[in-house]
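Lab meeting, action items carried over

1. Structure of the four-component assembly. Owner: GW. Status: complete.
Input record:
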Amino acid sequence: MKILVVDDDPDILEILSYNLKAEGYKIFTAENGIEAVKIAKKRQPHLVILDVMMPEMDGIEACEKIRETPGLESTIITFLTARGEDYSQVAGFDAGADDYITKPVKPKVLMSKVKALLRRFKTDAKQNNILSIGDITINQDEYKVINEGNEMTLPRKEFELLSLLTSEPNKVFKRDDILNTVWGSEVVVGGRTIDVHIRKLREKLGDDKFKTVKGVGYKFVYE
Amino acid sequence: MKILVVDDDPDILEILSYNLKAEGYKIFTAENGIEAVKIAKKRQPHLVILDVMMPEMDGIEACEKIRETPGLESTIITFLTARGEDYSQVAGFDAGADDYITKPVKPKVLMSKVKALLRRFKTDAKQNNILSIGDITINQDEYKVINEGNEMTLPRKEFELLSLLTSEPNKVFKRDDILNTVWGSEVVVGGRTIDVHIRKLREKLGDDKFKTVKGVGYKFVYE
DNA sequence: TATATTCTTAACTTTAAGCTAATATTCAAA
DNA sequence: TTTGAATATTAGCTTAAAGTTAAGAATATA
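Predicted assembly:
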């Protein structure tokens, strides 16, 4: 589970990150709204913890921007704000936030909130057959892929190949196995066919995401 | 739930929109009667909040026009008027309005009114098996469809195909699944039959609403 | 029964996914 | 460093899949 923490105060960033990492979450950080939107696009976090008062772009605007990004419509966003800034509570939910945390937070409280929010997400994602690995989100129902915020629909063979490779990130799939699963055991295709499809995927999703293991096959690289 | 707010005063528009959005409603706005009728046709709101005194076309006339539009006969319309303009109260109900709100309104009062009105609508819609997605409204009982204000009755097969596709917007339905649900598993029909029906739907409801995913199937595109 | 509407088919066209083949490039073993 | 087998890259071609049309079954309607 990936969490993006946004706050202009490095100390708070540090404290939150430390606690969340200890629970096994993958943490990204940003120090202002602009950065937050950029990283959210690239990293597709499951949860965003967003300070309201920030330089450059405040949390509310960032929240709206994130909500407009394809693939992030249902990302869980929770605001983080000093006690008493009461106007923002309304504005926050208006911008599409899901919850609200007041500073200072006790780690225990934070954890239980985060857990509760992510639990909700899990059931959502399952319902929609959505798989998220690294920067990529794959929607099996809609034959759609979101890569670093760019939505695209892949042709069938490419989609199936990507589905196979991402089903076990970092595992090397042998060329034979790929042929068997994506093409079926009866179909016979030339030796360069897989390469061509891999090339297309690299073109669309990024060269570095697919690694060739010479003499064996290919793998989808994750981290 | 979609709400259309109509007032010639941008400030009032702003205040109302802000408060309603905060409650999670989808808001459209218009600044006069003519615009209001046009947008109501296109967007098929569940509720219209309509100022009485407006340039171009007043609220009462707009109300009548909306009520005459197919698919909007049972849209909930509530007038908004300055306290004391008492003649209009009668004229308003005569024109087919459901309720009456006097300016200035306290947000809390507005909210509870809106909620109460929409609650009524919900039960109505459920009773009549009405489904609304984007510009399209589907009436299951009457095999009727309203597309951007144009009412039409679709032949059975077309209607069933549309019902299936809209049951999960954006999901790609495989050709096999479509055949199974719409035609049944025993019936065998030629390979081009589905295409022909899709073509008819595209003709009637708009090309872009149905997307082909080659080698897989079709989906109803929403947003 | 006559008539209109809906549904399916069949023949043909169009499209783009997928494949091939030819050439270039890489990489690891010798 | 060389070398050859494995992979990368391209563009063009092929073909399966979808689009289109009209005609005539099949149904429903008057």
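2. GW to write a short summary for the group page. Key points so far: Residues 155-158, 189-190, 192-193, 196-197, 212, 214-215 of chain A lie near DNA strand C (CB under 10 Å from a C1'). The mean pLDDT of chain A is 85.
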